[in-house]
Amino acid sequence: MLENLVQFLGRLHPLIVHLPIGILMLAIALQWLVVFPKYARFRDLLPLLWFAGFISAVMACLAGFLLKQDGGYDEEAVDLHQFLGIALTLITGFVFLIQSQRFPQKLLLPGVLLATFFLIGTGHYGGNLTHGEDYLSQPLSALMGQTPVKKVRKPITNLNEAIVYADLVEPVLEQKCYQCHSSKKQKGDLRLDSPESLLKGGEHGKIITVGKADESDLYKRLILPAEDDDRMPPKGKPQLTESEIQLIHWWLDQGRGDFTKKVAEVPQDDKVKILLSSITKGAPSENASTEPSEIPTAKVKLPDASVLQKIKELGVVVSPLTRDNSYIALNMVNAPNFSDADLFLLAKISENIIWLDMSETTITNKGLVHLKKFNNLTRLSLDQTGVSDVGLASIQTLPKLKYLNLYGTKVSDQGLKLLANCKSLKSIYLWQTKVTPQGVAALQKQVGKQVEINFGIDTL
Questions:
Q1: pLDDT tens-place string over residues 433-442
Q2: 170 with 92, same domain?
Q3: Which domain holds residue 14?
Q4: Per the database record, which ranges form the Cytochrome C Planctomycete-type domain (predicted)?
């Protein structure tokens, strides 16, 4: 209980620290203004302001000290911020004593100047700890026409020779995760800026389960609802795109979290090949649009245990996507004989299923009729099945579907017209189908650029 109290009081520091900042800024400004006769009547307020600044600075220092015990920050940076904060507090108290006629008035000007200097320094380095080193300097550099210095990554000219981690995964982590998990800051005692750190994990243990992406915290936290406290990156921070999440899943699952393997050395299904085909210059674009979590925030009943058991007996891989197991992903990779009748069984827990991969199964248009009940489904893979245009009539009504893979099916331009009615779609995969470039162009015109239509890839 004491530990929780200390943690609570420490986390008040970001709130308390604004009190001395505001009070001291007012005191310093007024200190210069009272030189003018017009403002001389405010001189009597100065001792009170400096005293209030001193007391609030002491409170901020104490809370800051407790916050430091919580960890998660670069030790050298915290020590510097702490030193400046304590120095500012002592100087503030000294200026108050001068104002109270306890020390010679000739020391007032040096005291005020020192307080100004340390106030700026303390605030600056505190901001660096919270927002990163370039938080203040980056917009100033842009204003002055200076280009920020960034780590230069060579364009990928031969994708097969690219290192999966260094050339594809690391740039994503650098853009979206380093601000809170690097040498400068270690939220949850976790660093993601080196292979050693990734393998070590954080205060909650390891984040990589070799060869099992769905059991790895590094992946699981990416797909939690935005409101979940364990969601990473947290709400309000730049989020990973769907493609970036898929990339990390592939690296953890098929790449087994290896840091040295080349792209050609890691197994790739056709979905991954399509994903990799869009990567021509290393990392995904820094300005790539972010997408909200695919996991609904609405509470649903847990899936019926007896139905789940029957599904597992078919060879279906069941992966929980939430801590309470209310939302799940189903994969038929070990159930090639999965049929239309089996899909009827899935319909009994349709509200719990948000990812459904029926690739290379015996599913047909007839079975897809059952999908009309899958109102929470966000991903659907039907690649290399017997599905055709007729089956898309059942898919077009799915209200939350974002990802649809129709690779290797009999879908044609006629079926694409139905997909225009599915307003939630973000990505459609149509490689090796009966669709034509003209049909793709017509669909793209209808749905707009916010929908990514993958029609073909280069040989990898």
A1: 999 999 999 9
A2: no
A3: 2-143
A4: 177-236
